[in-house]
Write a structure and sequence with these properties.
Number of strands: 19
Shape: globular
Strand order of the largest sheet: 1-18-17-13-12-9-8
Number of helices: 20
CATH superfamily of the domain at 265-377 and 454-552: Gamma-glutamyltranspeptidase, large (L) subunit, C-terminal domain
Structural class: alpha+beta
Strand content: 5-15%
Radius of gyration: 22 Å
Largest sheet: 7 strands, antiparallel
CATH architecture of the domain at 265-377 and 454-552: Orthogonal Bundle
Length: about 575
């Protein structure tokens, strides 16, 4: 196999950049948390090294899609709990001229998948089977998605975009304290699921600053660099995936891999107070739900009431309650289920849905709909936003589902498998491990894509780019993007403030308002509780990475302080 040459200009660039990033993060201060403004472009991602790779590509003359490809593959190395080549995701694209498109590279169920594959002889769900091990994996889509995006929009050579990730895998990078803690907490699972060992396993405890070297992953990335999509879905890497399936009880075949295709889909588009919102269609539920939420609150004077006051929170929660009930009953893979998207986003329909709302007391979720709710999604996803010098914009959310996916590293190939099969309704109408039940629209079927809440979005104002936004967070993704947009448009926050602001979440069932510590003041909380709202404190919600274009034409980044995220502009 061809080795990385030290003369490769991008490798040399990364070799220079990485020490500067690490030096700038001394003392645990990870990421830029200010609202500095830049003229020529910006990258905001969950990892400082990936952001540096993206900005280096832009400075080299690449466009936003080139940078997105480089960031996606770099995240697979330096942010392995969610960055991936063994998972999938969604991309929203807007050109500098206003042309828009989306690409669906969500994972698919294997051809041998069956409706009851995770049920025991009594018809009860076996939770572990859909969450851990290779049987939990869907056919990966990330490599196909990035390859398709590059084929249509890329400027720089494909090999140049994969080179930085290869360098990071081959030469290693220093793990952060957060990553060291995650790896230490997963050692038993890795050992159980990977008897031959992995790069993530270590005889002693991981510590911040330890070097994580992933030689097998570097080799896999080299196949992809040299052969494009075929370097993953055919040949040595595909054979390694199937061998892993045979070793550990999975069902993905060579035919499944060869037949996987990323799909270009028509964006979901809606308006909010003069702003055009461009986002993902199903099998993402996020786009339709986001438009519904924005339309549901558009007629209320949120700015007058103020950010996170009792009135603002109440009307937003009531909108969320109704939208998540709709999500449960009506959304799934459009190739298998007729999704009534136009009806769900119709202004008259949304107005009627909100008509049962009263200021006097909380609406009971059991009174909102007789539908069934989809499974609770894991929150370990990642998002990145990119704008280039010309004004082309990319919003990408990608995931393995659970943190470090199924916990299985493909032997000889060095990458983690996803556990996205758990996002299907394992048994429609029956409770899952969270006490929730799933709908028929999201039942398991061969070659079907599982429903997602991922909500990458791009906003326009008067025909010009305005915002690029998205977040991880499972079922909280939609409400986090919703609140971030309102924070800017209704509450006049800059991008960093909008991202940093404390958030809350309601998803119909369970009937409770999940609230980050400090999101509500004591007065607002008492008023809501007197009306019957159940307030449940919780840890961080979302991890938004976003870019705002100011009226003066500068780019302003928002890197979420809930993680090690970094916004870089030039």
């Amino acid at each position: 196999m061809q080795r990385i040459t030290r003369g490769n200009p991008l490798v040399l660039l990364i070799a220079l950049v990485i020490p500067l990033v690490l030096a700038g993060c001394a003392g645990g201060q990870l990421g830029v948390k200010s609202s500095k403004e830049y003229r020529n472009g910006m990258v905001v991602s969950a990892n400082q090294l990936a952001s540096q790779v993206g900005i280096a590509i832009l400075k080299k003359g690449g466009n936003a899609v080139d940078a997105a490809v480089a960031v996606q593959f770099s995240l697979a190395v330096v942010y392995p709990n969610a960055g991936n080549i063994g998972g999938g995701g969604f991309m929203v694209y807007r050109s500098a001229k206003g042309e828009t498109s989306t690409i669906d590279y969500r994972e698919k169920a294997a051809a041998k998948a069956s409706r009851n594959m995770y049920l025991d002889s009594a018809g009860l769900p076996i939770v572990e089977k859909s969450m851990y091990g290779s049987l939990a994996a869907g056919v990966p889509g990330s490599v196909a998605g990035m390859f398709e995006a590059h084929q249509k929009y890329g400027k720089l050579p494909w090999a140049d975009l994969i080179a930085p990730a290869i360098a990071l895998a081959d030469q290693g990078f220093e793990v952060s304290e957060r990553q060291a803690n995650e790896l230490n907490g997963l050692q038993k699972r890795f050992a159980l699921l990977n008897p031959s060992g992995t790069a993530f396993m270590k005889a002693s405890a991981w510590a911040a600053g330890d070097l994580l070297v992933q030689k097998e992953l570097a080799n896999t990335l080299t196949h992809i660099k040299e052969k494009g999509k075929a370097g993953f879905y055919e040949g040595a890497v595909a054979n390694a995936i199937v061998a892993e399936m045979q070793r550990s009880g999975g069902i993905i075949s060579l035919e499944d891999l060869k037949n996987y295709e990323a799909i270009w889909r028509k964006p979901v588009v809606g308006m909010y107070k003069g702003f055009k919102v461009i986002t993902m269609p199903p099998p993402s539920s996020g786009g339709i739900a986001l438009i519904q939420l924005l339309k549901a609150v558009e007629g209320y004077p949120l700015k007058k009431w103020g950010h996170n006051t009792d009135s603002t929170v109440q009307v937003m929660v009531e909108a969320e309650r109704r939208v998540y009930a709709d999500r449960a009953a009506h959304l799934g893979d459009p190739d298998f289920y007729k999704v009534p998207g136009i009806q769900l986003m119709d202004a008259a329909y949304i107005k009627n849905r909100m008509s049962s709302f009263t200021w006097d007391k909380a609406t009971s979720s059991t009174a909102v709909s007789a539908g069934v709710v989809a499974p609770m999604e894991h929150e370990e996803t990642t998002h990145f936003s990119i704008v280039d010098r010309e004004g082309n914009a990319v919003s990408i959310t990608t995931t393995l589902n659970g943190s470090y996916g199924a916990g299985v590293v493909v032997k000889g190939a060095g990458f983690l498998l996803n556990n996205e099969m758990d996002d299907f309704s394992v048994k429609p109408g029956a409770p899952n491990m969270y006490g929730l039940v799933g709908g028929e629209a999201n039942a398991i079927a061969p070659n079907k894509r599982m429903l997602s809440s991922m909500t990458p979005a791009i906003l326009e104002k008067d025909g010009d780019l305005f915002m690029v936004v998205g977040t991880p967070g499972g079922s909280t993704i939609i409400t986090s993007v919703f609140q971030t947009i309102l924070n800017v448009i209704d509450f006049d926050m800059n991008m960093q403030a909008a991202v940093t602001a404390k958030k809350f979440h309601h998803q119909w069932l369970p009937d409770e308002v999940q609230v980050e510590t400090g999101a509500l003041d004591s007065v607002a909380q008492r008023v809501l509780e007197r009306k019957g709202y159940i307030i449940k404190p919780r840890g961080p919600i979302g991890r938004v990475d976003a870019i705002l274009k100011t009226k003066w034409g500068f780019y302003q980044g928002g890197a979420d302080p809930r993680g090690d995220d970094l916004a870089i502009g030039w």
